[in-house]
Every structure is written in C-alpha cells, then in structure tokens.
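Ticket #4471: structure export looks truncated?
Reporter: QA, pipeline team
Priority: medium

Steps to reproduce: submit the single chain below to the structure queue and open the exported record.
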Amino acid sequence: MADPGTTKAGMGSFAVVVPAYNEGLVIGSVVLQAKRHADRVIVVDDGSADRTAAIARLAGADVIRMPENGGKAKAMMAGFARARDLGYEAVVMLDGDGQHDPDEIPAVAAPVLAEEADLVIGSRFLEGGAEIPAYRRAGQMVLNRFTNLSADGGDFVATDSQSGFRALSRRALENLTFASEGYSIESDMIAHFAPLNFRVTEVPISVTYGVPHKHKKNPISHGFGVLTRIVELIGHRRPLLFFGVPGGVIALFGIGLELYTFSELFRAGQFHYVVFILGITALILGLLLISSGLILNFLVLIMGRRASET
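Actual output as written to the record:
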C-alpha cells in the first residue's frame, strides 16, 4: 500500500485541508466524515498541546505538524502547499472545530470540479441563512462591507467573507501569492483573487456553533483584528477612498466651523477664536488627506499599468 503522505493525486481528484489547534475532541470525526468525500484529508496541526495530530493520523489523515502555533493563515498555506505538491486539481478547506458539516463538501467543491469557479465560498447567509447569533450577524455585515471594498476591480460581492468553508481550483492554488496572518486569510483571499478576475462564487452551507472550544479567540478582538487588516488593504488599493473621503468630510467640517465663526462675527460682533482655530486646523488636515489620496491613487494607477505591461 502506498504511503498516503507521498501518493500523487489523479486527474479530477481533490483534497480537504483542515487547520486544527487543540481539537483532539472532534478532529477524529471531522477527518472520518471528510474522507467519505475526498481523496485525501490533510490536517495541519498548528502547534496543538493535546493529541490532535495523533488522533487525526489514526483517523486516516495526512498530518502536517507545525512546530508552534503560527495562526490559521500560516497553517492553511502549509496545507495548500502540500496539496499543490501532490498534484490535486482542487482543494476544499474547512475548520477543524466541527462547526462545518463535512457532508456538504461535495456541494462546495462542485463549481470548482465543474470548472465553473476558481474560488467557492460556503455562505451561511444564503437561502435564509443558518441560525447565527445576532452579534455575529452584525459583525459579519461590517466585515463583508469592508472586504468588498478591499476587492478592488472585482464584480463579486461576498455575503459571508469570513467563511472558512471554501474550495479552490488548481489555478487558485498556484496563485496564492499574497501575505496573510492569523484569521485574516479569508478576506485576504477574496481581496487577492477579485482584481485578478478569478471566478468567485458562493454556495449555501449550514453551521453549528455548539461545539467544543468554539471560541479560541475573543470574537470582538478577532473581528477588530480582521477589520484592521482589511482597512490596511483598502488604504493600499484604494487610497483615494481611504484618504479622500475622510479628508473631504473633515474639510467640510472645517468650512462649517469657519462659516459659523464669521456669521457670529457679523451677527453679534463676537469672534470665537477657539472655533476659528479648530476650523482652520480641520480644513488644512482635510485638504492634506485629499492631496495624499490623489497622489497615492496616481501612483497606484501607474504601478498597475506597469504591472499589466509586464
């Protein structure tokens, strides 16, 4: 029997990549269920302190052990590299905590296997959506909005930008040329592929939140961490939006303060020095932000043209 860690994939086959951190209670069942639908299950043990790696291996997974906990993005990239080296035509990624239903793997993989998409995102919000806590829905709406803004040049609009249940084509696997850290890989992936005109779509999935270790990281700090990364992407790719819009608002606020100052001067003969200084400061700051946005936007356009020519 061939070693499951070295056997090459056949045409049309796909692997499942599962990042796992201290998931010894559930990883065995996740692997066993996923193996029913995929040629190989690659579990990336992200420096777990429990028996996650041993249990996953006993369940039949191809296990990659990270020397220390480096975050989800680093673990996923290691799993993608293994699948790519083994020649798989597609990869399905799902979380190792049991929230996702492995029986939905065929539905998520189908558009990629049919060569209709390069990235398929399993959305919890399609077809009515799953029963998701209100605070998660609110946070997801904010992250969706900012992720879609960061996807400069793409027509795709995500309804579940943070879903960890998705499928990638071989073309996508060979173009994972972006840097990512922690839990921002889902948003980074969309922002990277959309401007390249990769085919991105969504399919409905279910989700279960009543699982062990359901919150490895505080949801609020997690959300702010991802949001910070997305804002960085927007500033890099859409500087006119990132700097120009706030600059315009601040400049208008400054103009308003100046109009108030001089109207009070002519109406009542009183000159409000503090309001005047605040207005001038806001106006200058706003104009500086608008100028920075225009300059950076020009540089981004020049770099984009040079990249397209090469």
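Status: closed, not a bug. The export was complete when the record was re-opened. Leaving a note from the reviewer for reference: The beta strands are 14-20, 40-45, 62-65, 90-93, 119-123, 166-169, 200-204.
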